[in-house]
Amino acid sequence: MSTPRFPKPLRSTFLGISVGLVLGVSISFAVTVYAAKDQDKIPLEQIQTFSQVFAIVKSNYVDPTSDKKLMDGAINGMVSALDPHSAYLSPKEFKEMQVLTDGKFGGLGIEVTGDHGVLKVVAPIDGTPAAKVGIKSGDLIVKIDGKALQGIGLQKTVDMMRGKPGTQVTLTILRPPQALPLHFTLTRAIIKVQSVRATMLAPGYGYIRISQFQENTGSATRKAVEHLEQEANGHLNGLILDLRNNPGGVLGAGVETADTFLNKGLIVYTKGRTADSDMRFSAHGPDYLHGAPMIVLINGGSASAAEIVTGALKDDHRALVMGQRSFGKGSVQTVMPLSNGGALKLTTALYYTPAGCSIQSQGIVPNIEVQPANARQRALNADLLNESELHGVLKAPDECSKATPQYTIALPVSATATTQSTQEDEAMAASAVLKPDLAKDYPLHEALAILEGKAVPVQEAKGQTVDTVIPPPKAVGQ
């Protein structure tokens, strides 16, 4: 039952570079050569203005500047003005991207995106240098090896973090609400991440952690389910799928993972301006869990392919989603090679969940929200951990923007927001190599309680907490 059910072309479809660029994570991308349409009108007036500016800069700028530098800068400016994920790749940068795909460089294992001249951390990857030193979702990288990043550009800042394995790099980070910057020294490494890990949380109840979506993640997830079922004497009573701090990855892997738990139904579809940008991906079955209840854990570091899986399982009524609203990276980037050896990474479509909701800048709203008891921490999470806060972000149709959680669970008041956040981070880091610590990981603890049919503390409209048994999810129409 563990053979892949998708053809190779689907598994190698490019899902952008998730959010910005994965430093040390294998990616896949489809390349197509595109020609300008003959019928497109050439904006002669704007081209004349550009020629004027070019000539003035060439003749009058204080330092002599090469034509190549000016033209590359103009192209970069044109593309980067579109959205945070489109980019022009010089021949050198395109070649480095292909090296990145092969995993033959030293990285940090950190997912970042550009925002107002600095780098925003979407998520560190389990077991990598970034995760080991304590880099967190929402951190703002303002300096690399003491050099300020303002005005450098996303691709060059990414290059500054890559390097020979074994060499070190120092990151200066702002982490609100802390007033003083933090300094982390990391040792670059070849990033080889085991994307799927599984264990039993309690008799009959399994746990699968997916740290990112690689080419083999779908098949690895199916094998993990089979292994857990064997440990449970052939039948699981429930499963928790942990996608917290999962920055995404390969589209086909996300589709295969969702299909692991579905018998039928739409998983995701895309819509763009051109006919070849419109795609639909559906489940083929069988459901490897045989309808057993599921809960998917997400947070603000869950992005891209992780949101596709979550949206499919939620909209197809296969799983309850629990945690915080996801990041909201729902755009498709296509890499188009250019005649000079470079490439254009261009946003060409948006992703939509089976219910027709755009993921872009909205994210996935959980059925069960787990929020800090501290109002200030809740406000910080809302500001730091979502795509909609990025400069120049694409805004999607807002048909589903008013979605709200059905239930809200607050973190224990006895623990400060900072302490609880640290405990949860530690628990997720430990899950990369060890059995998760239910005593420290409160969302995971409550998710297991829900699957077991136990009451959990739910906040009502007036603020009081009432112990409530939340009905476990049931597979509908599967």
UniProtKB/TrEMBL annotation:
Domain PDZ: 96-162
Keywords assigned: Hydrolase, Protease, Serine protease
BP terms from Gene Ontology: proteolysis; signal transduction
Any one Gene Ontology molecular-function term assigned to this protein's record: endopeptidase activity
Keyword hit for Protease: yes
Example of a GO cellular component annotation carried by this entry: outer membrane-bounded periplasmic space
Pfam families (UniProt xref): CtpB_N-like, PDZ_6, Peptidase_S41
Family assignment from sequence similarity: Belongs to the peptidase S41A family.
Protein name (record): Carboxyl-terminal protease
Organism of provenance: Acidithiobacillus ferrivorans SS3
